[in-house]
UniProtKB/TrEMBL annotation:
Organism per entry: Microbulbifer rhizosphaerae
Keyword Transmembrane helix annotated: no
UniProt name for this protein: Two-component system response regulator BaeR
Record carries keyword ATP-binding: no
InterPro entries, alphabetized: CheY-like_superfamily, OmpR/PhoB-type_DNA-bd, Sig_transdc_resp-reg_C-effctor, Sig_transdc_resp-reg_receiver, WalR-like, WH-like_DNA-bd_sf
Alphabetical UniProt keywords: DNA-binding, Phosphoprotein, Transcription, Transcription regulation, Two-component regulatory system
Residues annotated to bind DNA: 126-227
Length: 227
């Protein structure tokens, strides 16, 4: 599905750029590296990329400016790479037209998963998923759930609740078990807190794919995950 897709990687840290290029090429992508923001628009005049991975801090022209300029000319998907973990920067990047963001230091497998998910979303938006393709993916060490290739933001607690349910699909977890997994510091919370978080997660899922039911309530027992 993603084999042969062209990626433009704009990253001025040589080691990071090299790691990204080598890993993504091993996944079957064709990669081009640029190390300055002010080179991007000229490159795009004569070249094509299916997805651009764009660092925020760049010489010549910063990533936010590049994102804005590219979005005025193109609908090419853009993934921002940033060491800024503040929510305001992440939201600003998305409001400028970025499709996704990844915070450094990142897991290369997660980067590849994000790229693949974005390509699937663009290619199959409005269509049914392929036979055998899971409708949801909970990425490792990343507070995000991918639904039909579309990212859903989770809080850290929501992620800790979903992780065991997702990893052991079909297994029933009691509220007490989920409480222990979600709150390792033994703060003063009740089992009803789990219900509140589950309700929030379901609402987020429904906002993206209304007909998709992943978390099932088991009467008098708890919850389980079923695709």
């Amino acid at each position: 599905m993603t084999e042969g897709a062209r990626l433009l990687i704009v990253e001025d840290e040589a080691k990071v750029a090299r790691l990204l290029k080598n890993f993504l090429q091993a996944q079957g992508y064709k990669c081009t590296l640029l190390d300055r923001g002010d080179l991007v628009l000229d490159w795009l005049k004569n070249n094509h990329a299916d997805v651009m991975l764009l660092d925020v801090m760049l010489p010549g022209m910063d990533g936010m400016e590049v994102c804005r300029a590219v979005r005025e000319r193109s609908t090419m998907p853009i993934i921002m790479l940033t060491a800024r973990v503040e929510e305001v920067d992440q939201l600003l990047g998305l409001e400028l037209g970025a499709d996704d963001y990844i915070c450094k230091p990142f897991n290369l497998k997660n980067v590849a998963a994000r790229v693949a998910a974005l390509l699937r979303r663009i290619k199959f938006e409005g269509q049914s998923p392929e036979v055998g393709e899971p409708p949801a993916q909970l990425l490792e060490n990343d507070n995000r759930l991918l639904l039909m290739g579309r990212p859903v933001e989770l809080t850290a607690t929501e992620y800790r609740i979903l992780r065991p349910l997702y990893d052991h699909k079909g297994r029933i977890y009691t509220r007490s078990q989920l409480l222990d997994l979600a709150y390792s510091d033994y703060r003063a919370v009740t089992e009803r807190s789990i219900d509140t978080h589950i309700k929030s997660i379901r609402k987020k899922i429904a906002s993206v794919v209304p007909e998709l039911e992943l978390i099932h309530s088991i009467y008098a027992m708890g919850y389980k995950w079923e695709d």
